[in-house]
Amino acid sequence: MNHSLEFEKPITELERKIEELQRFSARENIDVSDEIKHLQKKSDKIRKEIYENLSAWQRVQIARHPKRPYLLDYVDLLMSDFLELHGDRLFADDHALIGGIATFEDREVMVLGHQKGKDTKENIRRNFGMAHPEGYRKALRLMRLAEKLSIPVMCFIDTSGAYPGVGAEERGIAQAIAVNLMEMICIKVPIIVTVIGEGGSGGAIGIGVGDKIIILENSYYSVISPEGCASILWRDRAKTPEAAESLKLSAFDLKSLGIVDEIVPEPMGGAHRNYEVTGCNLGKVLKAQIVKLEQMSVEDLLEKRYEKFRSIGVFLEEKTTKKVQSEGNQDNKQ
């Protein structure tokens, strides 16, 4: 099935022509290698021009690509002996947010993250990566277990948001996420968070409090989806690309704002083009970060984690105060 994106059409057309020439050459036994080389060179040039100048909205589309590697793909690429652990011990097991113990670079780690499906059947089972309250409660249970075992926690974010259904609301989705935010600040082992695809709203931040926040080059992290932002602010979904730019949700914007610590490069065209290269790039970054964090004392770890999240954001209290004082002075004169 063809999963090319709208802005990739010039590349797709050239690739199709190359394939047709290759089939023609094999069928008719005619040498057309020069023509193929010319088209390949043209394709590479166009690909480079497109992917070196991606807009925020185009990066969102790549982050949502159905062939993009998901959590279990990275587990297969980077880890061994993965043992999935189930259930929140309160209600049920959530297949959208999974976790378990694995071996990474000769050390045991607790792996947590959102998991989407590879096809329609699996997506329904995984609820398209949108976790219920029991998913976040399971995540917290496993983080507390990691704390008891003194092993690092590795969280992988890939969700458009927490599930907004009636059942999730009845079982306390907001409370489950809020408790995770509070408790993750105090977990006494290293926590590394990686955004591997979509990082949407509270569904992302529910497992997003960590000592280091890493993001893949074409992933995004935002309080709301571009479509949702466009619908609320402009009441027009056609404004989605403009909303994506305004939200500053791309990896490079997030790095400049100090929200993420490191960007993992992806192969030209996105992570779905080459799982092995993407996994290798991510593995190097994770290893380097985990080695640094393991050298810190628990006290320093918790203090820096707290300071990290307290420093995110900009406040305009001073300007507001001056404005109020100015208005008050004018009223007194009158």
Number of helices: 15
Strand fraction equals 5-15%
CATH architecture label name of the largest domain = Alpha-Beta Complex
Mean pLDDT: 92
**CATH fold annotation of the largest domain:** 2-enoyl-CoA Hydratase, Chain A, domain 1
Approximate shape: globular
Give the CATH superfamily of the largest domain: 2-enoyl-CoA Hydratase, Chain A, domain 1
Low-confidence stretches: none
CATH class membership of the largest domain: Alpha Beta
Q: Mind explaining what this structure looks like?
A:
The chain has 334 residues and is an alpha/beta fold. 52% of the residues lie in helices and 14% in strands. Strands 1-2-3-4-5-6-7 form a seven-stranded mixed β-sheet. A hairpin with a 2-residue loop joins strand 2 and strand 3. Helix 4 packs across helix 13 and helix 6 packs parallel to helix 8. It starts with 8 loop residues before the first helix and ends with a helix.
Question: Could you list some keywords that capture this structure?
Answer:
334 residues, alpha/beta, 7-stranded mixed beta sheet, 15 helices, 14% strand, globular
